[in-house]
Design a protein that fits this description.
The chain is an alpha+beta fold. It has a single domain, classed as Uridine Diphospho-n-acetylenolpyruvylglucosamine Reductase, domain 3, CATH 3.30.465.10. Helix content is 18%, strand content 19%. The termini are far apart.
Length: 186
């Protein structure tokens, strides 16, 4: 049964997709990619649906809703690295850091401007920037992405690689230390 999706902000991108699937794990993302291949369908994907150009939807696609890929794992307090799923939002990450470190622990360096309920996967996909002059794009803090492949993919061919699956992101310490210039961890 076709489903109509639209962007949150402009509401100018009404698009009819074939189906919407909401995976919770990377293995389920691979299953979605395999299903699309079997059905001969293209895949579109979105998280918060905040992109304003309609690029997150495709007519008659199998639409992957990434919001349930919101797991937050492994805060490395020594290096300021946090592993998150593509569906994690900035408020999710900030709260997870507070829960693990308290108020005087780590913090994000910057995030997008204009809205908060945006997913990390979408941020990676569009190489977002914030308002911190001199910081560069937010994704300069990205250390690694995990990219699932479907069963027909071969290493190095670049097929079926959804670029919106992030890996680790770096944080900036709010604790002053001797000689600390508060620049991002390199």
């Amino acid at each position: 049964m076709p489903i109509v999706l639209n962007g949150v902000h402009s509401q100018l991108n009404r698009t009819t997709v074939h189906d919407v699937v909401t995976p919770r794990t990377v293995d389920e993302v691979v299953d979605v990619l395999d299903r699309a291949r079997r059905e001969g369908r293209r895949v579109s994907c979105a998280g918060g649906r905040h992109a304003m150009g309609g690029q997150q939807f495709g007519t008659d696609t199998l639409h992957l809703d990434g919001r349930r890929l919101d797991q937050i794992h492994d805060l490395d307090q020594e290096r300021g690295m946090l592993r998150v799923g593509a569906g994690a939002t900035w408020p999710d990450i900030i709260q997870a850091i507070r829960d693990r470190c308290g108020e005087l622990g780590w913090a994000i360096r910057q995030n997008q401007t204009g809205a908060d309920d945006l997913t990390i996967g979408g941020a990676v996909r569009v190489n977002i920037h914030g308002r911190g002059f001199g910081f560069g794009p937010c994704m300069a803090s990205l250390v690694r992405r995990t990219l699932p492949e479907c069963d027909r993919c071969r290493p190095g061919r670049g097929l079926c690689r959804p670029q919106w699956i992030p890996g680790r992101t770096r944080l900036r310490s709010t604790r002053p230390r001797d000689g600390d210039d508060h620049s991002p961890i390199r």
